[in-house]
């Protein structure tokens, strides 16, 4: 059964049951009240009859039945019974007294029975008959009026229930439509996504604040994120293959040259082998960096220790100095330590320092400062610098300011992408300040402690 039909059926049925219960309550209450009123009137009549009877014994009036007739209820009867309950006589308006068997129960004020759909009530009162014997007087009353009114009320209630059922049904239909329409849209978008292989969004995502509108917006957001991620992956694969293709083409062409010319021309052979070795190196670096990026994504575990940042910086700088024979000047506060993953921090410092070295020729100044919640390390070089509009893209994968510049340095455009992943894990903020021709300053803000909560989220 469809959800729409289920909602329809259940809500309508529930409301109809409630209505029926309420109406039955009204009906029963009315009937009870009406019978009670009739009973009270009959009781008053009975009391009056008793008074008149007592007067009968004082004042000798001829026929007691005249009194009985005088007090006989309209559409009712009076029965006279002896002490043993045997009927002595009766006066009757319209009831077939003989046929109506009514007995007063223990603690009951009146007895009631339905005769052909009309309730008949009876009250009983003891009396002294004119001959001095104790008799029972029974007053019976047929409640035709009550029955008629109850019948009318029943009809009205049925009519009202039927009339109410129509808007009820319509409102339930509208309600289920309100609930299900966004779900239908969601379903449609998901089906379309599956069949077309695209990232379909819900066309009219509601702007409301309710849960369904929220689901729609979340779905659209999720689809957008998936699409962006997919595009990024696609871009990454295409960039990676492009990057690998260039050195491979160079290697291939030099290898072919060697095959054609052999080693007869030593100069050409030397050049070819140097180019092959250089491009293989580049390819190797590129693959290592790509693997690094992939590893960074999947492996989120950190080994956090108390790390002396000053010492770490010194050892990194000394390694770089030995490798490239460049001057790195460390200034500012010393003996600064934080709780972090030392290995990853060193990797990050290495990327930034290596860039400073690659893209400048002068000395590089490193300034460390203790701040309120973090330690800042500013790495300033005096190279070509980066144009303002390029700064936001620096951390994108394969992004390079200028291909010419990178060809010289052998960069691949993956270094800062790896730095971004590392900084995310270590909760380090990287700020870049630079302008074309004015050098570049990369500042790392390393928190004293990695917040466990954020770490878990990653
Ligand atoms: P690569 O491995 O090519 O250096 P990166 O991701 O490390 O790739 O750097 C991205 C781009 O940012 C490069 O094109 C590079 O030219 C530029 N860049 C990075 N650091 C500096 C710097 N200190 N000075 C000038 N340009 C820089």
TrEMBL record:
Start and end residues of each HAMP domain: 177-231
Root EC class: transferase
The keyword Kinase is assigned to this record: yes
GO MF term list: ATP binding; phosphorelay sensor kinase activity
InterPro entries membership: HAMP_dom, HATPase_C_sf, HATPase_dom, His_kinase_dom, HisK_dim/P_dom, HisK_dim/P_sf, HssS/ArlS-like, Sig_transdc_His_kin-like_C
Key words of the record: ATP-binding, Cell membrane, Kinase, Membrane, Nucleotide-binding, Phosphoprotein, Transferase, Transmembrane, Transmembrane helix, Two-component regulatory system
Record field: transmembrane: 7-30
UniProt main location, coarse: membrane
Reaction(s) the record says it catalyses: ATP + protein L-histidine = ADP + protein N-phospho-L-histidine
E.C. number: 2.7.13.3
GO cellular component, one term: plasma membrane
Keyword ATP-binding: yes
Origin superkingdom: Bacteria
Membrane topology: Multi-pass membrane protein
Localization in the cell: Cell membrane
Domain Histidine kinase as annotated: residue spans: 239-450
PANTHER family cross-referenced by the UniProt entry: SENSOR HISTIDINE KINASE CPXA
Name under which the protein is recorded: histidine kinase
